[in-house]
Write a structure and sequence with these properties.
The protein is an alpha+beta fold. It has one domain (3-132): Nuclear Transport Factor 2, Chain: A (Roll), CATH 3.10.450. It is 32% helix and 40% strand. It contains 4 helices and 7 strands. It has helices at 3-18, 22-25, 52-65, 124-132; strands at 29-37, 48-50, 71-80, 83-93, 99-100, 103-111, 114-122. Strands 1, 2, 3, 4, 5, 6 and 7 form a 7-stranded mixed sheet that branches. The N and C termini lie far apart (42 Å).
């Protein structure tokens, strides 16, 4: 796949993720995909690793917490070979009125046109304060 096709796959995945459409979002992922949220200690959604089932659960949790959808806006890209690095900004209003607005840096690795690895850097304290505390 070309780097442009890989970037489009990331956009398609996040479009379905943002809409809370786990079934279709998962079609962009390889069977053995791993999503690693970087942090020293913790469990998803703050940090840790998720497999495909964990990613489906995350999408459903976000849809429940942010029923109008989570906007994920790309602000920068670097792509080479089977890797795409992307910066995003999120925005969403939770059912409790809190605003989730987090900057991200993702590294996506591809195999045969599917995302097989996601490494995520974000403000983990913001995630914890909005979704956990």
């Amino acid at each position: 796949m070309s780097t442009q096709q890989n970037k489009q796959t990331v956009l398609n995945f996040f479009e379905r993720f943002s809409a809370g459409d786990a079934t279709n979002a998962l079609t962009y992922l390889g069977e053995d995909v791993i999503w690693q949220s970087m942090g020293i200690k913790g469990d998803p959604p703050v940090s840790g690793k998720m497999d495909k089932n964990g990613i489906a659960d995350l999408i459903k949790m976000v849809k429940t917490a942010i029923p109008k959808g989570l906007e994920l806006t790309p602000v920068g890209w670097t792509a080479e070979g089977d890797r795409v690095a992307a910066e995003f900004i999120s925005y969403g209003e939770l059912t409790n009125g809190r605003i989730y607005n987090n900057p991200y840096h993702f590294l996506f690795q591809f195999s045969e046109g599917k995302i097989v690895y996601i490494k995520e850097y974000m403000d983990t304290l913001h995630v914890k304060s909005i979704f956990v505390d």
